[in-house]
Amino acid sequence: MTFIQPLTGEAPGIWRQWGRLPPSSITTPELAQAFIDEQVAAIREQIGDKKVLLALSGGVDSSVVAALLIKAIGKQLICVHMNHGLMRKGESEQVIDVFKNQMDANLVYVDATDRFLGKLVDVAEPEAKRKIIGAEFIRVFEEEAR
Predict the structure, then answer these.
(1) Collapsing DSSP states into helix, strand and coil, what is residue 80?
(2) Which ranges of the chain have pLDDT less than 70?
(3) Which distant-in-sequence residues (6+ apart) come within 8 Å of 68 by Cβ?
């Protein structure tokens, strides 16, 4: 399993490491395709024949990363989508449809709804909820990674 450098975020110098264009300067379809091609090549070079494990929330960031990785390394990518019971209605089904059915991703779906909601019973303070959700997410993801 390989950890790749972040494909999103504002880490200092990340665009110098990646290539020449930050996404905000992609203004035409040609520039978009050039950026995608450049990233796919860089990913293939970094990953080689190893496998990659990705937590796929269904949000924009993880979905874009998943799409690039699928294009670059195909079935070497293992996406884990976890339903923690706090998703929008139909959101997990949409993630499964797009990534497994349409993009043929190697997708593992984990329904951890009862587990998460059980941990949140009687917890009213938002920061406490955030910490519980974060810790439980990590535990479930680690279990699935094995």
Answers:
(1) strand
(2) 1-24
(3) 7, 36, 39, 40, 43
